[in-house]
Specification:
The protein is mainly α and about 375 residues long. It has 17 helices and no strands. The chain has one domain: Growth Hormone, Chain: A. The longest helix has 30 residues.
């Protein structure tokens, strides 16, 4: 694992800093709005606004990278992200915040496209699972650190937003000062949805449902915890436990993905996620320690879905299509992450907070059914 980290140190450090900022921001938003008695639907909409920007911004990021290159595109996107966070401190309006979150999503997806296409372009397929698992470990570590950082600001004032902006600014340094050769200039090409839809349908569908599950978790897990009667510290520990369990499992899952069928691993993840989500429906009153254990198990199989889907998508893609694939992959994930918080938030509003995990279990079941159906069709064709 150490040798893998030293291969792309600048990209991994940049990822860590970006995710510290987003992890802190999402937890802060959930707790702050819950303290202000804002409805779960509004909270879900604010998180979904970010993912809407992610979807819309994938095309923008794709074009920007082709036009000015990876490093300049990343720098421009980072500056825009900082401005969106600082602007939120100036105007206290939910409608204005919706707009800011859309723009922030546009800028952040450009940063993600730069990092992920860079990693995939300069990695051989037999090491892709491990390289991408370290990327996801850094993502999970950053998110967990950001979620835990909220415990330093129990009053939920504007100081967490200042910290978010500082982390975004610091994320520029590793990329700008990296001595590693950056990817070659990309040949201008449209985003060919039909091409990728025919070539990697299972990978894109897995990304879509992973987006639903992860988006609803990031947007509403803190709300779920608060409604369970947890304190701010307990709520932060609950969400961080899920993320930490996910990041610890990234390297083992990446190793497995390099050795065995990624499709089979996706099906196993879907089965386990369904079972664990059912335990959290609310029909049993679990003690806090038991909920932490279930949350940890849920994190293991929830957060490894994206890496499995990405590896599955990149198995047979030419290098000149990496940026386009990354853009479409993130768009697909973003559509799911945009819909997930809205649907789950509405269900929680109508039928109670346990509907968050009802929604997750339904998504996992759909994923299992569709992956199994694709296997059956493939065997019949043979």
């Amino acid at each position: 694992m150490i040798s893998t980290i030293t291969t792309f140190p600048a990209l991994y450090l940049t990822t860590l800093l970006i995710l510290v900022s987003t992890g802190l921001f999402n937890t802060y938003m959930g707790l702050r709005l819950s303290a202000d008695s804002v409805s779960e639907v509004w909270i879900g909409m604010l998180i979904s606004a970010y993912y809407l920007g992610l979807v819309c911004g994938a095309r923008v990021g794709h074009r920007l990278i082709i036009r000015v290159g990876h490093i300049r595109a990343f720098a421009a996107a980072a500056v825009l992200s900082i401005c969106m966070v600082l602007a939120q401190m100036l105007i206290d309006s939910l409608w204005f915040w919706l707009l800011l979150r859309v723009v922030a999503g546009v800028s952040l997806v450009t940063q993600y496209i730069v990092i992920e296409s860079w990693l995939n372009e300069q990695t051989d397929n037999h090491r892709r699972g491990r390289v991408f698992s370290v990327y996801l470990v850094m993502s999970g570590t950053g998110t967990a650190l950001g979620q835990l950082a909220i415990t330093f600001y129990p009053s939920l004032d504007v100081r967490p937003l200042i910290f978010v902006a500082i982390c975004q600014a610091l994320s520029l340094f590793p990329i700008l000062l990296s001595v590693r050769t950056h990817p070659a200039a990309q040949v201008p090409a449209p985003l060919d949805f039909k091409y990728f839809g025919r070539l990697i349908p299972q990978a894109l569908f897995t990304a879509f449902l992973a987006g639903n599950i992860c988006g609803s978790f990031y947007g509403l897990a803190a709300v779920f915890a608060v409604k369970q009667g947890f304190t701010t510290t307990e709520a932060a520990l609950y969400t961080a436990t899920t993320v930490i369990a996910g990041l610890v499992s990234q390297w083992p899952m990446g190793w497995l993905a390099d050795q065995y069928s990624r499709k089979k691993l996706v099906r196993i993840n879907a089965i386990v996620l369904t079972v664990l989500a059912v335990l959290m429906w609310g029909w049993v009153s679990w003690p806090y320690w038991a909920m932490l254990l279930i949350a940890a198990g849920f994190g293991v199989f929830q957060f490894t879905l994206y890496g499995l889907a990405s590896g599955l998508a990149n198995e047979s893609i030419d290098s000149d299509r990496r940026v386009g694939l990354t853009a479409i992959f993130l768009m697909t994930y973003g559509v799911g992450a945009c819909l997930g918080p809205i649907v789950a938030g509405a269900l929680m509003r109508l039928a109670g907070v346990g509907m968050l995990y009802v929604f997750c279990s339904v998504c996992a079941l759909i994923l299992l059914f569709c992956m199994q159906s694709s296997v059956i069709r493939f065997r019949k064709q043979k």
